């Protein structure tokens, strides 16, 4: 990876050191969200999206953090701020389950569109986004994701396209869609380097020319003393959290960096943070991968809630675009009357089936690769099944590994695609009251527009 | 069925005609629950329980009531009052998924217990219930269900037993557990006649002797001019709503009758209403049955919300004891990229697979019985599968019918048992603020005790 001089074109006088967050407002919000400040318009809005995160993904992760020795289940950071749920349908007739593009468009624009479309209507006409509105109003803006930063969910906030798969076009738009001669997004952190460093166009050089620092690993990101930042930490998506090397930042690291940069703007900021690969793991029916990515999401949620609680002027909204996998906490494998889901099985894994599959392809020994990742002993029957796998077929190999884990842990799935169940909606801070209840997901974009307009 | 004189022992002078509900408080609660009266202790508490009703069951029913011709999804009555969710674990070590007895015990007592146990701890020691507390405080009390009225969920409020299956014992306790010389529950409406009219004990005569009216069909129930009422409308559970004859009341009919009786008490009332057979249908992986029973539940919810909105002094809590079936709105049958769940298939059915199975056993022709219930045309492949079914085996027959419907509608299930996903929590009226957020289900019982104690 070629990384350009991070300081090109930036006046060193504007570089400041972050010494901490203002303690403007610190309420006793230990559990009840009732004590939030709801009087004022928020200065900052942070939208957290768990891609594919249905109610069961949240429950699964809560069982992972639960301490069996305590009588009550330990709570997740967002649990006290659950305020409702969202329907996620796209506008297509005859299609009742959303993809990430259509659903992210509702958050970004307040309008429903067809699957595959990014902030355009079904005829391809651009719909203004809340991020663009925030930028025009003088706020700073950011996108953070563990997928390619030009993947559907972040892309809906800063590009317009009928086809989410045209990620080169989307990367071009990230640079070409400008306000006052500068790109719309001040901080972009995620994967997708290959869409920026291309033969046909060197977007890295172009962003650098507009004063962006370019970083490609965690330490570079933490050292960057510039408020305009493009961090691309993988050619495509980042490795899953449990599979990462220390040079790859967590979602929490990226969230913290983004907030540090963006919160310098006295006018406020708008930031989207996506845990992109909850969805990817669920597409693979990979419960270990789901827990890895939920844990990555929780690092970002903690960072965001620490900031928002201290700051007192930040609205935090957290939700999902749709459910993936038809995940359930229990399966036929557990029998009709044996009511058990075994998080203990999942806790034995050091990394996810994706890395096990890589290891198996490298060594030619799937059973050894599996046993290296876990203290779980494979049964003869399980070994037999794994021996039948064609290691050349990466997808088949990973699925076979996931199937063993699903059966052992009694994890149920109904599809490799998305499902239509409502997703949870969390809100905290000024403006959060308006999110209470069940809504169409368009309400998120509509309310953000309203709050920006106030 | 032998039904005793409904007026035995009742002073005709206390019979009054209900002319309507007091319009003490009518807020503009068209969507936001924020405008509720939260200042005061509620006079009345109504707890609505959808047995086995997970997030996907609610979504499925919302798709059923949705009008495809309108751009936005139509809302359910409770949608504006979604305030959070509940964890549902029992206290058993090594068992992570609740049964109805353990979960209902948390609502009834505020304490977790083991699966199978009704308002006793794991050693069998009785735990006081909110219904008993309400009765001692002078409130009127009621239990309404579509299962046997001595089935686990209602039973947890008015009996104490280590074994939920001992339904004769539970029926005995309904009579024997008394306050001031009268049974604890003033109005009981549901199924389960066989547990009251027994060779070893005639509980019907005993209740009648204590001044209860006994009714066995809808018109008798509506005509009963007595505030103490025992209505048993089937030997075991009621038929599913879509399979009922007009002589069997809906859950809404029973809810309305119960409220009419109980609301005469100026001290207030405590009422539990359970849509019992959402769970039963889900155990059968029967999506048509789930929709039937969700619709029955909605009739009760409408009745309750009409009363509570007018009354202004009623706290309504609605939730579920656990999820059943691992239901999802989408399945592998729809393919990995074809995002569709077809409620249209379900809408073609006039009644549920239970009645189709009865019809097939009577006629000997399952295909004719299936085609009589729906405008859906069976394919040759589907017919072949149905022809292989052993009609003598009622369970096998019903499952075969349900499998055809699941595949056609792309409905996914992961188990014939329960799962551990969080269940939705709705609250409306005075006291409702305290329910906001995610909680262990023990909070429901604990808060009801606190509200009664105020």
- Within the largest sheet of chain A, what's the order of strands? 7-8-6-3-9-1-10-13-2-14
Oligomer: homodimer
C-alpha geometry of chain A: globular
Q: Helical region count of chain A? A: 16
* Radius of gyration of chain A, CA atoms, in whole angstroms: 22 Å
Helix content of chain A: 25-40%
**Overall pLDDT metric of chain A:** 90
Proportion of beta-strand residues of chain A:
5-15%
Number of strands of chain A: 14
Biggest interface = A-B, 71 and 72 residues
- SSE succession of chain A: EHEHHEHHEEEHEHEHEHHEEHHHHHEEEH
Stretches of chain A where pLDDT is under 50 for at least 5 consecutive residues are 1-38
Terminal Cα separation of chain A, in Å? 44 Å
What kind of sheet is the major sheet of chain A? 10 strands, mixed
Structural class label of chain A: alpha/beta
Which keywords apply here?
homodimer; 16 helices; 10-stranded mixed beta sheet; two-stranded antiparallel ribbon; alpha/beta; globular; 454 residues; 36% helix; 14 strands
Structural commentary:
- The structure is a homodimer of 454-residue chains.
- Helices cover 36% and strands 14% of the residues of chain A.
- With 454 residues, chain A is of the alpha/beta class.
- In chain A, the strands form three sheets. Chain A has a ten-stranded mixed sheet, sandwiched between helices. A two-stranded antiparallel sheet of chain A has the order 4-5.
- The interface between A and B is large, with 71 and 72 residues.
């Amino acid at each position: 990876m070629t990384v350009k001089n991070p300081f090109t074109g930036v006046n060193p006088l504007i570089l400041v050191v972050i010494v901490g967050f203002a303690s403007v407002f610190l309420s006793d919000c230990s559990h009840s969200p009732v004590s939030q400040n709801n009087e004022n318009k928020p200065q900052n809005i942070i939208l957290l999206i768990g891609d594919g995160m249905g109610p069961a993904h949240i429950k699964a992760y809560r069982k992972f953090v639960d301490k069996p020795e305590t009588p009550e289940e330990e709570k997740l950071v967002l649990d006290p701020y659950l305020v409702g749920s969202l329907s996620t349908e796209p506008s297509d007739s005859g299609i009742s389950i959303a993809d990430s593009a259509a659903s992210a468009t509702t958050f970004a624009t307040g309008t429903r569109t067809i699957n595959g479309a990014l902030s355009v209507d079904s005829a391809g006409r651009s719909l203004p986004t809340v991020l663009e509105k925030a930028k025009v109003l003088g706020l700073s803006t950011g996108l953070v994701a563990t997928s390619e930063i030009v993947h559907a969910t972040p892309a809906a906030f800063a590009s317009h396209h009928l086809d989410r798969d045209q990620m080169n076009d989307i990367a071009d738009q990230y640079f070409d869609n400008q306000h006052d001669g500068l790109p719309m997004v001040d901080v972009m952190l995620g994967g997708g380097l290959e869409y920026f460093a291309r033969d046909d166009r060197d977007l890295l050089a172009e962003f650098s020319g507009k004063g962006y620092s370019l970083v490609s690993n965690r330490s570079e990101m933490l050292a960057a003393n510039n408020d305009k930042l493009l961090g691309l930490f993988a050619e495509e998506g980042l490795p899953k959290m449990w599979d990462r090397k220390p040079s790859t930042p967590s979602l929490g690291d990226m969230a913290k960096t983004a907030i540090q940069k963006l919160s310098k703007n006295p006018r406020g900021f708008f930031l989207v943070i996506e845990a992109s690969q909850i969805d990817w793991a669920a597409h693979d029916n990979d419960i270990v991968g789901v827990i890895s990515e939920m844990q990555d999401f929780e690092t970002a949620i903690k960072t965001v809630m620490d900031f928002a609680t201290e700051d007192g002027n930040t609205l935090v909204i957290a939700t999902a675009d749709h459910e993936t996998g038809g995940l359930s906490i229990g399966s036929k494998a557990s029998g009709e009357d044996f009511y058990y889901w075994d998080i203990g099985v999942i806790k034995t894994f050091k990394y996810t089936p994706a890395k096990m599959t890589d290891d198996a392809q490298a060594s030619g020994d799937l059973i050894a690769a599996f046993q290296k990742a876990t203290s779980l002993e494979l049964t003869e029957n399980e070994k037999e099944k794994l021996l039948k796998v064609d290691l050349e077929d990466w997808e088949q190999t990973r699925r076979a590994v996931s199937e063993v884990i699903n059966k052992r842990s009694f994890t149920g799935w109904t599809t490799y695609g998305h499902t239509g169940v409502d997703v949870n909606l969390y809100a905290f801070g000024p403006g959060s009251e308006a999110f209470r209840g069940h809504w169409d997901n368009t309400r998120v974009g509509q309310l953000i527009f309203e709050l920006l307009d106030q």
